[in-house]
Amino acid sequence: MIRRLREWCRRAALPVCLALPWAAGVAVAAPLKPAVARSGVAAAPASPEARLIDIYQLIRDGDARRALARAETLTRDVPNFQLAQLVYGDLLLARRQPLEAMGAAPPELAASSPDQLVQLRQEATLRLAALTERPPADAVPRQFIDIPSSTRHAIAVDASRSRLYLFANDAKGLRLVADHYVSLGRLGVDKKEQGDQRTPLGAYFITSRLTNQQVAEFYGPGALTLNYPNEYDRRRGKTGGGIWLHGVPPANFARGPQTTDGCVVLANPDLLRLLREVSPRRTPVVIAPKLEWVARAQVAQERVAAHAMVEQWRVARSQGDARKLLSFYSPQFQSGTADLAQWSQMVDKELQATRGRTAELKEMSILSWRDAGEVLIVTFGEVLSGQLTGPLKRQYWGKEGGQWKIFFEGVIL
């Protein structure tokens, strides 16, 4: 098949094909098709990205005439979609002369914006790969150990694919409902300090929703802020802040794969969906160098083990056993300005005040993160017997000498 495609490209004077994944010997599945409408309800219009992928498939199939027509329509409908403009220009130019590469701009234009052309070519490759190499069916990112049904969404970002995956969540568990191309840091990922132009890696939460009236036009229609640096980041000395999920200026449809100062940037229509649907405080956002998709049964096993461990902590707290309770905490524990000794005094006073009343943990969320270390992030509402509500708390558990210990605990305001 690859030989036939190369031959077709040569005959049709479209060497642009040689820059695409299928011409390099990569097995490519059919792109995703929009969901078929049922019960007479009109299907939602295809996204600009889906329309672009359709054009690429027409090129692959040798239908240059329809590819050109659809590229013309797409650029008319979404004039700020630079990658679509690039493909349209290729198809037009290919009618007059052979093309040496994708994005065959005049020499003077290519010389003036070489980095932009590189970014556009990378964007094309990433969009194609992410849409044709789909996550395994009925699998979830391994970081989502337990997400309560009251948390309606979860988000995972695969940096290797420049892709954001949006999950809906209910009593039946997580369900992948959308995924979007994103732009990341100019110098890659694994942020360590302020101004290093890298996107952080880790498990975070959305802390607030900003409207277009609260952000500059540069950020598009709004933003979702993340709690970077989290307590695990702080423990490792990471600095910086202001990491958002945000959009792009009106003049752009998207940005190149590595063009941000560390934020995760989406096309404005994709961001608007997130702004409408996801909620601050409880919505998790995992940013991984490469997502590991695992079977739900594997996650269930880890969930049982994590719940058993947290339950032991809850029982010790309910029994008012300060000594046993403090055995769950790391010698390096830190909560704000309080170290373990100061925390011990606070725990003693709190246990005396509650007089051993049973604590219930409501709507528990458990996230896992593994890199050089292994961390569990546990969030829950703590309600004492006789009370209707209680504080929202978050704990960070880390492996120390093979044992899980709490190195941070605090109330989420």
Describe this structure in words.
With 413 residues, this protein is an alpha+beta fold. It has eleven helices and 18 strands. Strands 3-4-5-10-8-7-6-11 form an eight-stranded mixed β-barrel. The chain has a five-stranded antiparallel sheet with strand order 2-15-16-17-18, with helices on one face. A hairpin with a 7-residue loop joins β16 (374-384) and β17. The longest helix has 24 residues, at 296-319. The radius of gyration is 25 Å and the shape is elongated. The chain starts with a helix and ends with a strand.
Secondary structure layout:
Blueprint: H1 2-11, H2 48-60, H3 64-77, H4 82-94, H5 107-112, H6 114-132, E1 139-141, E2 144-146, E3 153-158, E4 163-170, E5 173-185, E6 202-211, E7 222-226, H7 231-235, E8 244-246, E9 258-260, E10 264-266, H8 268-277, E11 284-288, E12 293-295, H9 296-319, H10 322-326, E13 334-335, E14 338-339, H11 340-354, E15 359-370, E16 374-384, E17 392-400, E18 403-411
Helix pairs in contact: 2-3, 3-4
